Amino acid sequence: MSAKMQTRTTAAYYAQAVLSFALATSALAIGIAYLPVNSWMRGFLAVGLLYEITSAFTLAKVIRDRQEADELTSRVDQARLDKLLAEHDPFRVEGA
């Protein structure tokens, strides 16, 4: 029985994700700043942008936490199964 292989994020992938997030956020913030609308509308859109960003981070954390909890449960179940299989003797005669 093999354990799951832990995947690691490469530095290039991490950098790409950070740059992509920064570029998207900057582009949207600049777009909001240059919209030909009054300051109340611009402020509303800016608050919406901040809310969307915090919601995305919260969702990513919740998904990660759930995945880690499932992985931990899976490892505990695997350890129990390994213990049962190690203790099982198919040649043992009951009552003899």
The low-pLDDT segments are none
Number of helices, where a helix is a run of at least 4 consecutive DSSP H or I residues: 2
Helical fraction equals over 70%
Query: What do the pLDDT scores average to?
Result: 85
Along the chain, the helix and strand elements come as: HH
- CA-based gyration radius: 26 Å
Strands, total number: 0
Overall SS class: mainly alpha
Structure in words:
There is one protein chain. The protein has 96 residues and is mainly alpha-helical. The protein is built from 2 helices and no strands. Helix content is 75%, strand content 0%. The protein is elongated and about 90 Å long.
How do you describe this structure in short?
With 96 residues, the chain is an all-alpha fold. It is built from 2 helices and no strands.
Using brief descriptors, characterize the structure shown.
single chain, elongated, mainly alpha
Layout of strands and helices, then pairs:
Blueprint: H1 11-33, H2 39-87
Helix pairs in contact: 1-2
